[in-house]
Amino acid sequence: MHAAIYSFTHGQALAADLAAAMRLKHELIESHTFPDGESRVRIPSAANTAFIYCPLDRPNEKLAELMFAADAFRRGNTRRLVLVAPYLCYMRQDKSFREGEAVSQQAVARFLSSLFDRILTVDAHLHRVSSIGEVFPEIEAANLPAEEAIAHFALEQGFGKDTVVAGPDEESAQWVGRLAEALGARSVTARKIRRGDREVEISFPVDPDVARKRVLIVDDIVSSGGTMLSALATMRERGAASIHVVVTHALFDEELHRRMQMAGASNVWSTTSVPHPTNAISLAELLAEALRDELKD
Is the dihedral of CA 158, 86, 261, 216 positive or negative? Predict the structure, then answer.
């Protein structure tokens, strides 16, 4: 078999969507956990080019599964092993903040580089490095932007020139501006002051002027949710007609989803980078387009 999409049970529906977009077979990798916590991984076949689809939210057990799967593929006929991880874990810790602390980004990058020939991800959360190539200097790596898929979805939902696209912190300014341009809308970006893991204050350098307007708050990751809750409160206080949230990576639980709705979010939407109840924006075609070069003879 020339090429195939493989996945574990987590994320298998999204892997099937990617396989359909690429017109490839989708096969499940078996993973069994023994009573002592050890795992057994078995692959159903070993295509010459194997794409492993694995969103790396809640990553620790998944990283072990990837290690065993990669070993199995290398023992088979696989010559080209590609990891498709729409959400890539541990990218946020790119420095040691306290003495004795691991630099998780670098450690995970070295580990994955030892297993795969190429890594594909979406909207990786990079702070002090400018590109995914700096994170993975020894292998091929690509960091795809989700903004076009998000813009297409937003237009379908009727967002346009009467919308205010809001970013909850300075890091969001890059994609907030581009999304606003695609919608013909105005954009505003807040400044964030973090008091702890869950305590955040935000302020806007200028009056966001959102009274009686539809507001679309955009961010790459929502996890603990402090920043997003603060942004929602600010927009509601400023008299927004309705507030909607769109996020690339939805890493939050049901309780935070409920709190966002109580804070004023009419809708909370996410891409399919990780399986989540808020999934509304498919990344299958974005990923397929980036991977089609692997199928050329």
Answer: negative
Say if residues 50 and 3 touch (Cβ distance below 8 Å): yes
Same domain, 84 and 206: no
Confidence of residue 258 (pLDDT cuts 50, 70, 90): very high
Question: Does 62 qualify as catalytic in the annotation?
Answer: no
Set 25, 62, 161, 192: catalytic member: 192
How far is 204 from 150, CA to CA, in rounded Å? 24
Instruction: Measure the CA–CA gap between 40 and 30, rounded to whole angstroms.
Output: 8
Domain extent for 156? 147-272
Phi, psi of 152 (to 5 degrees): -60, -45
Q: What amino acid is encoded at 26 in this protein?
A: H
- 35-65 per-position pLDDT tens digit: 999 999 999 999 999 999 999 999 999 999 9
Judge whether 272 and 282 are in contact, CB under 8 Å: yes
Residues 37, 60: contact at Cβ < 8 Å?
A: no
- 126 and 180 both lie in a single domain: no
Task: Please give the pLDDT value at position 194.
Answer: 63
HSE toward the beta carbon, residue 35, CA cutoff 13 A: 0
Considering the entire predicted model, what is its pTM?
A: 0.94
Q: Are 10 and 276 in contact (CB under 8 A)?
A: no
Q: Computed over its alpha carbons, how large is the radius of gyration of the chain?
A: 20
